[in-house]
Structure formats: C-alpha cells, structure tokens
Amino acid sequence: MQDLIKETLGHLLTGLQLEFSEIKIDAADPSMIRVDIISANPSRIIGWHGETLGALQNLVKSIVRTKEKLEKAPFILLDVDGYRRDQEEKVCRIAEQKIDLVRRKKTRVALPPMSPYFRRVVHLHIANHPDYQDIATESVGEGDYRQIVLKLKEGSMDEGEELQPIIAESKEERVEGFENLDI
Fold first, then answer.
1. C-alpha–C-alpha distance, residues 5 and 23, integer Å
2. Class (C level, CATH) for 2-81
3. What is the 3-state secondary structure (H, E, C) of the chain?
4. Model pTM greater than 0.85?
C-alpha cells in the first residue's frame, strides 16, 4: 500500500504542478500512515489554512481505498515540511495551558471547536501523558462546533460546576494561538 500511496500522491502533485522533491512514508504507528512531502515551495501544497493539503489527503485516501478494494479508507495523514506536526504541538500546548486553569480553579474548561483529527490528538496526548492522569477529556457539541472539555477526574471537582465560556465574546476572552491554527 505504501508504494501505491507514493505513486498516487506523486501523480497528483505532478499533475497539479505542485513542486516536490521527495515523499516519505512512516507507518510505524499501526493506526495511521503519515506521509511527509518535502518541497521547496510548501505553501503552494498547504494552501489557504491547509485546504489544498486536506483536499490532497482526501483524494489519496479515496484513490487508495478504491484501488485496494478496501471497505474503509485507511487513516492517511499528509504533512508538508512539518506543517501538521507544528499544528499538533501547538494544539497540545494550548490544552496544557488550559489544564493548569482546570487544576487551579477546579472547574471544567472547553477548548475552541476543532476538527476530529485535532480532537483526537488532544485526547491521546492527555490520556498518554503521565503528568495529566488527573485530567479527563470529553468531546461535546455537534458538527463544526464539536469541542473538547477538560475537567478533573471524578471526585476532584465541585458538583454543579459551571463550564467556562466556550466561544469568546470579546477579543480579550479569545484563546491565544488558535487564530492561525487550521483546526
């Protein structure tokens, strides 16, 4: 399947005249195939807020699913020059900052709405980090407004606690760092 992914992505990039020098595949994680594109002009492949990259990712997944006659599309994640990795790290740092608030105020805090992929990144980061074993995460909301709520695990929080604001009303209330994050 790795050869098919490389070949398919290479044809798409060439056909769209998007410059690249190499395609690297990392399948060390059995739950996902990470594909890194090396390019002298990554912004053209990334597109506005990652839209071109996301479209390429969907095309590759669909083509691989069809050619391999798979029942379900494989979890393929395209990245260009570390663009997605940087975003993953940024969303995890933001969640870590909010964990401090959850602990200090013993309250629940909701992160801004984000894509299913970035919610998954945050859930896994917190669940697998030894310093955050007292923190629970849950996804709430629907559609484009689905978001993660961070809270202390059972017994660590006052009952009837109010949820901190989810959507900022003013510029001062907005979560720093989310303005350029393609979530």
1. 9
2. alpha beta
3. CHHHHHHHHHHHHHHCCCCCCEEEEECCCCCCEEEEEECCCHHHHHCHHHHHHHHHHHHHHHHHHHHCCCCCCCCEEEEECCHHHHHHHHHHHHHHHHHHHHHHHCCEEECCCCCHHHHHHHHHHHHHCHHHCCEEEEEECCHHHCEEEEEECCCCCCCCCCECCCCCCCHHHCCCCCCCCCC
4. no
The full set of domain ranges for the chain reads 2-81, 86-173
CA 177 to chain centre: 14
Q: Which amino acid is at 111?
A: L
Instruction: Kindly report the length of the chain.
Output: 183
pLDDT category of residue 30 using cuts at 50, 70 and 90: confident
What distance in Å separates the CA atoms of residue 163 and residue 140, rounded to the nearest whole number? 12
Give the pLDDT of residue 172: 46
* Residue 65 to residue 144: CA distance in whole angstroms: 26
Q: What is the mean pLDDT of residues 52-74?
A: 92
pLDDT tens digit sequence for 89-126: 999 999 999 999 999 888 899 999 988 889 999 999 99
Task: Give the class (CATH, top level) of 86-173.
Answer: alpha beta
Q: Are 1 and 68 in contact (CB under 8 A)?
A: yes
- pLDDT tier at 138, thresholds 50, 70, 90: very high
